[in-house]
Design a protein that fits this description.
By secondary structure, the chain is mainly alpha-helical. It has a domain at 181-286: TRAP transporter T-component (Serine Threonine Protein Phosphatase 5, Tetratricopeptide repeat, Alpha Horseshoe), CATH 1.25.40. Helices cover 75% and strands 0% of the residues. The protein contains 16 helices and no strands. The protein has helices at residues 4-11, 17-39, 44-64, 69-86, 92-110, 114-119, 124-131, 139-154, 160-164, 166-180, 183-197, 207-221, 227-239, 243-255, 265-280, 282-285. It is globular. The termini are far apart.
Length: 286
């Protein structure tokens, strides 16, 4: 990643007082820009090695500025992205732990709002009311909190406590669709499509709602964000036992060039890897 070198240099100058605070805030801005450079990476092995060390460097900076929302958001996004891209398919237990890190860093942002902090301890209706007071500027923090939370739950369906938190994660993502449905290439719609598409009707699933969310996401991202197809296949297509759609969606991922979305080559490279894994396991699903 671009910012490894300047992180190391800046850390030499983080000594005390206002100089330290200014340095942390300045590097936080560069880290934000540098993360965009990281998402352009297409070599999965390189990314898997590079990401953990850079996340720890951001945590070092966070020690000196514990309420820095920019750093907290980068950590929330980074840990959940690491779990999604490099852990959940081979080590679900570790993935759950890293998704929880992502969720918890996001919650640290949300809890800076006292009303929201209280509402997070209450009912989904309490949470919905508190979220209604937020501006679109809060969308990234809400999205990454919900993404980490929901992904943890998705891997913990045998845990009744985890399942009990599903309405909170759904409420957070509904806020994102209401305030900025295009954020992260329609990511909230992908999340909600998976939410409704991966469960049978008796457990709250709704294939019609799920398909509408996925199709909305595809209209928003123009089919360039390939993870949309992956989630569409592994939730809706499997739950409805639509084998033809499953193959169609994942074959599209395999055949689409990474450069269709240059700024998110990494996400699309991960999508391609997941598509291959899912196709190899097709007999388990149908």
């Amino acid at each position: 990643m671009k910012y490894v070198g300047f992180f190391s240099l800046i850390l030499l100058f983080l000594f005390s007082g206002c100089v330290q605070t200014i340095a942390v805030n300045a590097v936080g801005g560069m880290a934000d820009d540098g993360f965009s450079a990281f998402t352009e990476e297409e070599d999965l092995d390189f990314a898997e090695i590079a990401l953990p060390g850079n996340l720890k460097l951001i945590e070092v900076m966070l020690k000196n500025s514990p309420d820095n929302t920019r750093l907290l958001r980068l950590l929330s996004q980074g840990y959940s992205s690491y779990a999604l891209g490099f852990l959940e398919d081979k080590d679900p237990d570790r993935a759950r732990a890293f998704y929880m890190r992502g969720r918890d860093y996001g919650l640290r942002i949300l809890r800076q709002n006292s009303d929201l902090a209280t509402a997070l301890q209450g009912t989904p209706d309490n949470l919905k009311a508190a979220l209604a007071q937020l501006s679109p500027d809060e969308v990234p923090a809400v999205f990454w909190t919900a993404f980490g939370w929901g992904s943890y739950i998705y891997l913990s369906l045998d845990n009744t406590d985890a399942i009990g938190d599903l309405p909170r994660a759904e409420t957070l993502m509904n806020f994102v669709t209401a305030k900025d449905s295009a954020f992260y290439y329609g990511g909230a719609h992908v999340f909600l499509g998976t939410f409704y598409g991966s469960r049978p009707r008796l457990l709250g699933g709704d294939p019609v709602v799920a398909r509408n969310h996925f199709e909305t996401a595809l209209r928003i991202n123009g089919g360039r964000f390939l993870m949309t197809y992956v989630y569409y296949a592994r939730s809706y297509a499997v739950q409805t036992q639509n084998e033809a759609l499953f193959e169609e969606l994942l074959t599209k991922v395999k055949n689409t060039p990474l450069d269709i979305l240059p700024e998110f080559r990494l996400a699309n490279a991960i999508a391609k890897k997941k598509a291959e894994l899912l196709l190899a396991r097709k007999a388990e699903f149908f």
